[in-house]
Specification:
The chain has 169 residues and is mostly beta strands. It has helices spanning 53-66, 80-85, 87-90; strands spanning 29-41, 68-78, 98-105, 109-116, 122-132, 135-144, 152-164.
Amino acid sequence: MKSILICLSLPAMLAGITVFAEPLKVKPGLWETTTTTEKKSAREPSNLDRLTPEQRARIEKKLAARVKRETSDIRACLSEAQIRSGDAFIGKTHRATCSRTIKNQTSSDLVATVECSGANRMNGRITMHAADPEHMNGTADMTYGAVDKLQLQTHSEITSRWLKADCAK
């Protein structure tokens, strides 16, 4: 999965929510966002503690080589309504099996959780911080897959900056 603006694309899978908290104090308009995502398997061998230091080092090196990092940049228009509702940061979805909850929201910080059940299980936490009306940063930590099966974990670092009020062209 490409990590195209984690605060807009990945959360597009998430369920709707009504926001009663104060919205982040950021400007509507055209925003540029850089997202760097690290993906890795959530399961590690359970016998690492029984290996020799040399064996363990080899296994840990192989595990580290499996970690994938992707960086993407995108520009997106955020409306005042999207900012007010929180959809600009944690998205909307059409998946009935997903729920999302804004745990905390102030004029400068937003913390939300996501949970999707069914065949494509997913859960995680999204945080966004508005340093000022023109700059945001955040993280998204997600786990995909059932607990008893192979899981994928992602950690994304998000940096956004406001470009201009007019989104045309």
